[in-house]
Amino acid sequence: MKIMKFGGTSVGSPERMKDVVRLVTESGEQRFVVLSAMSGTTNNLVEIADYISKNNIESALNVLTHLRHKYAKHLQTLYATDKVRKVVADYLAERFDWLRSCCAQPMTPVLEREILAQGELMSTHMVIGYMEEQGIDAVLVPAFDFMRTGQHAEPDQRHIRTALSAILEKEGQHQVYLTQGFICINKDGEIDNLQRGGSDYTACLIGAVLKAEEIQIWTDIDGMHNNDPRFVENTKPVRHISFEEAAELAYFGAKILHPTCIQPARYANVPVRLLNTLDPQAPGTLINNATEEIGVKAIAAKDNITAIKVISSRMLLASGFLARIFQVFDEHDTSIDMVTTSEVGVSLTIDDTTHLEPILDDLRKLGFVQVDTDQCIICVVGDMTAEQHGYCAQVLNALKEKPVRMICYGGSDHNVSVLVSMEQKQWALQQLSKHLFG
């Protein structure tokens, strides 16, 4: 069985929904399909929840009315029969009536999560209705029946495996199993979401527990590119990349994947393929545990980075000094991206500045603190193990004409990272492409 996940733009209109169904069923093989909310829906639901929390009920109702009219128009185009159209319309009416009732309730975190879950519920009911109208042997498997998180909001894979196996055994054999991405039930039995990676995470969790043949992530981009096409001309798709390399790229700015979402597939040794709904014949990008090609694969950039340097003579030959610095960030729940050290100083970067001021206050107790904002991490990814030589030199040679704030190499066999100012970002990406890819 193959898992197929389609994002919001892939189900953003009746025509795109029909294209998705065609992609799912054209081979005649069994498929497990994960759908996101229709594009724009989740943003509207966030608006509605925000207006309700601010007691601006009129604006919440305006957004809700606009969204309801949008769905009503899609129903007229998607279905050929009044019977199926009415069944789906009745379901959507229930969802929109419930959303309207939320305007009379005080906003809570639980209610907000319930509101945000409506997009996936509506898109899957629309698509399953179309499949049934087309005579396709398909069944809707509600994510709430098997997708659950446990402690620390992490997926409870044991529960997911047990519940999903029981559902599939009860439902029997079907050509298509359809479910919602992103949404789940948490340890307290409340409606929640997977947060990091969203629907991609759902697909990889399902693929891992079912030991699927392949997990396909369908978007409107032809896989991962070797650089950011918004800033660099003539980029090329990367046809194969390892899980480790994909995770590095995703963490350091490649928006096509979230770094954590592919981990279940990696540990279960299930390949992930990134494909393009606008060009289904394109090979896309294959991600698996194999390393087939030595050298640089791709470049990514992570924006809005803050660099912090702590200098103290007390660090010289002192044990535990680094631990005290890292403890400051742990106490303020702030993760660190890059780290470099010398005998009397440590430089590190963060992208979340929510707690920057209290962090700096605590660090000043340990030494002199210097802060640089508006920085950018440029990450060069590939198979660059210590036995392979020259790659770090190529990276630095490409950037020799401009100042580099930090360099990080050796923490991974797949990553050389440099820190430059945001105003140098485009120049750095272009220079690296020129020197590394010719």
* Assembly state of the chains shown: single chain
Report how far apart the termini are: 40 Å
Q: Which bin fits the share of residues in helices?
A: 25-40%
Largest sheet: 8 strands, mixed
- How many individual helices? 14
**Spatial sequence of strands, sheet with the most strands:** 3-4-2-1-7-9-10-8
Strand content: 15-25%
Q: Class by helix and strand content?
A: alpha/beta
Q: What is the averaged pLDDT score?
A: 92
The parts where pLDDT drops under 50 for at least 5 residues are none
Give the SSE string.
Answer: EHEHHHHHEHEEEHEEHHEEEHEEHEHEEH
Q: What's the gyration radius in Å?
A: 24 Å
Tags for this model:
single chain, 438 residues, alpha/beta, eight-stranded mixed β-sheet, six-stranded antiparallel β-sheet, 16 strands, 40% helix, 22% strand, globular
Summarize the structure.
The protein is α/β, with parallel strands linked by helices. 40% of the residues lie in helices and 22% in strands.
